[in-house]
Amino acid sequence: GGPTVHAGTAITEEHVGWHVDTLNSIHHLALAARGRRALHSMRIGRGGKGEAGAKEAGPEAVVEWQNPGDVYVSSPAFFQHGVEYPQAYRWSKRCIAVQARVLLNQAEFADLVAAKKESGCGFLGHFSAALASRPVVLPSLEELKAVEAELAEEEPGMAPSEAGAVFTGPNAADVPVQILGHVHYSYSFFR
After folding, report:
1. Is 189 helix (H, G, I), strand (E, B) or coil?
2. Do 59 and 42 meet the contact criterion of CB atoms below 8 Å apart?
3. At what angle do helices 106-119 and 122-132 cross, to 10 degrees?
4. Which runs of consecutive H residues, i.e. helices, occur in the chain?
5. Could you tell me which residues come within 8 angstroms of residue 121 by beta carbon, excluding any fewer than 6 positions away?
6. Tens digit of pLDDT for each residue in 117-160?
7. 186 Cβ partners below 8 Å, 6+ apart?
8. How far apart are CA 56 and CA 171, in angstroms?
């Protein structure tokens, strides 16, 4: 998880990097923070396996554009997907998204892998039903700031000597160190 930053040449529909996430993405939240991006996914009909003819017709390609502030919750460990990005040659035009996944230790991950092997994807139905039984409620900015303050009191995130540090990114853009976390930079050069 963490921020994903894309700048550079567009990643068009024909160059989307299709993949299935590992099992820690059984419960995944993504927030579009800056710029636009499109989530491409392959799904078996909108009505699921029970929809007449959906299974025989094969997967359906779905494209969902996200604007800043858009959020989705999904289980990308169970379906093919990829992301399309528009051109962003200027650093000021970059696309930033925040990915949040389940943090698993090695034993928990092994248990999840074993459960998947035992039931195939059968447990996904139970997991999806549990998720769908309650509405997704995102915290307010005030709630996030309260948690941030609480965490800062418990364990400061950086040494006092690092408090004013900045990272100089492409085009000499300064990015405060404390917001970097685990950043995945995506520079594309497809033509």
Report:
1. coil
2. yes
3. 110
4. 54-57, 106-119, 122-132, 141-154
5. 78
6. 887 667 777 777 877 788 878 888 888 888 888 887 776 554 44
7. 4, 5, 6, 7, 8, 11, 85
8. 50
